Amino acid sequence: MNNLYRLVMKDEVAGEVVLKLSDLLRFTLYESNVESIPIKSEIKFLQDYIELEKIRHHDHVSIEYDFSAIENEENKIAPLLFINFIENAFKHGVNKSRRGSWVKVILIQKSDFLEFNISNSKPTFKKTVNTIGGKGLNNISSRLKLLYPDKHLLTIEDKEEVYSVDLKIDLI
């Protein structure tokens, strides 16, 4: 990655993309292979991913995120809890839309709970098969049951124009 970065240093945007990709890979390979991490580490990872999507989609997609309502950034959580939901918002929502689409992500942490909410616009064309969830959602649901048994509530809404996920985790 460092070699690639040196090759693209003259292009500011390309350099930024390489640095963010490098950070994502480093986190995924070296920092997420533990039982728990500080919330601030997860937030940095998610911000890097979302910023890459912003670069990719420019101004034709409204991408908003708010991670400011974090009471204690040092609270520990399992790593990579939210990335599947964010990836899905882009893969199944934004990337399949031909016009103005949007994604909104919010993470809130108060003393004893964490709440993650993501919603995205859906493509205007109709699919022939309407299914909720694939392997990614099944995997994260199973993972939540193992990591936070009886301490989480996952709500998924698949409406005509909006797809949303709300995940609440009891941190006690």
From TrEMBL:
GO molecular function, one term: phosphorelay sensor kinase activity
Domain Signal transduction histidine kinase internal region: 1-60
InterPro entries registered for this protein in UniProt: Bact_2-comp_sensor_kinase (IPR050640), HATPase_C_sf (IPR036890), Sig_transdc_His_kin_internal (IPR010559)
UniProt superkingdom: Bacteria
Gene3D superfamilies according to UniProt: Histidine kinase-like ATPase, C-terminal domain
Any single GO CC term annotated in Swiss-Prot or TrEMBL for this entry: membrane
Listed PANTHER family: SENSOR HISTIDINE KINASE YPDA
Protein name listed in UniProt: Signal transduction histidine kinase internal region domain-containing protein
Lineage: Bacteria, Pseudomonadati, Bacteroidota, Cytophagia, Cytophagales
